[in-house]
Amino acid sequence: MAVAKMTVPELENFLRAEFPQAFAADDIVIEAADGASCRLRQRYSDQMLRPGGTISGPTLMALADFAMYVVLLSAIGPVGLAVTTNLNINFLRKGSPGLDVLAAARILKLGKRLAVGEVSLLSGSSPDPIAHVTATYSIPVA
Description:
Blueprint: H1 8-18, H2 20-23, E1 28-33, E2 37-42, E3 49-50, E4 54-55, H3 57-76, E5 83-91, E6 101-110, E7 114-123, E8 129-138
Antiparallel strand pairs: 1-2, 2-6, 3-4, 5-8, 6-7, 7-8
């Protein structure tokens, strides 16, 4: 079982200081992070919508990428220069306007230089994912 190298409060403090453009607006909440998985919630706003009244792809991709970053940091500690090397997203169904978007991320493989994970994106309390993401992160040499 994985042991978290950063707690939720430590993650929040690190992200506010090192990555404020993604985290300082308080629209994303880290609900849980344990070194192997995490759960984030992005509060709904009208800026998330694309024409046609669905949650936009860029909103979903950004949340999924951020969730992967959070779960990775919870696993390896405060390594700010870990970066995305690949992100693949499958849009499965329409995200409903007016509902928060949840991201459930988990690490599939954590190596010395690369981490691979997946993220399920959910709309509100529905158990059916609106998108599925796989992502790879590069971990810099210490």
